[in-house]
């Protein structure tokens, strides 16, 4: 039996058992079309599955009373995997984005999964949705050509941490792919330092007649630990994080994670407090700011303003039909 078949069975096993507490293992195995031994192996695997954190209260839990099994914690898998049209299209778009992302491994597996999903979605998968990342393979080669020609560039660049677009002149040094994202590393004359520019955030560029000339102190960045490398001079942000937002501890480098009963206290460095503000507001009620005080004040003020704006909407206008 393939691993794909087993994953599909495991996704349906939890809601099946939730609907039948105390069912005999032998009866469940017969319903699912597997052997008693295979079902017991599946139950052993389920004990190691769950939510990020992977500790008590995160992993799927069950009670085995003799030959009877009961799920005591489902980790959110409380129904069989059934995708509606919007969910199927979202997955199709996400997989198409992965196939366009340079440096992504297991591309053949992604393409097989995409083909199966498109086949299952039928006509809906043919919706007029085209996916093309700005940092795809074609543009990657385009910027490699820029580096080889050795010309200074005038670029229009969007800086996500400050949510602003700037114009600057840079001296290209190299193009590289880190974590599936393509970057142009260059000496930035505005910052007077080496900077990594994400290619998908370069809105426009023009090659100048001037030769690229990074100064002697310009050195390639060590990206063995990732592009963003926190330093002690950056603002330290402390967040109280709920269960559904714990993924940020895997996505962003954290200095400390204190696992409390209902929440985690997470400490991380932010390149800019404006970036931290947008991160917290985007995560909603699952995250609360503990420090620094200025971030607490800004986020609290914006949250109250948003609530006041909702309260000002007349009841007739706020009704969704």
Automatic annotation (TrEMBL):
Domain (WYL) ranges: 140-205
Every PafC HTH domain range: 5-118
Domain WCX: 238-307
Listed Pfam families: HTH_PafC, WCX, WYL
Protein name: Protein pafC
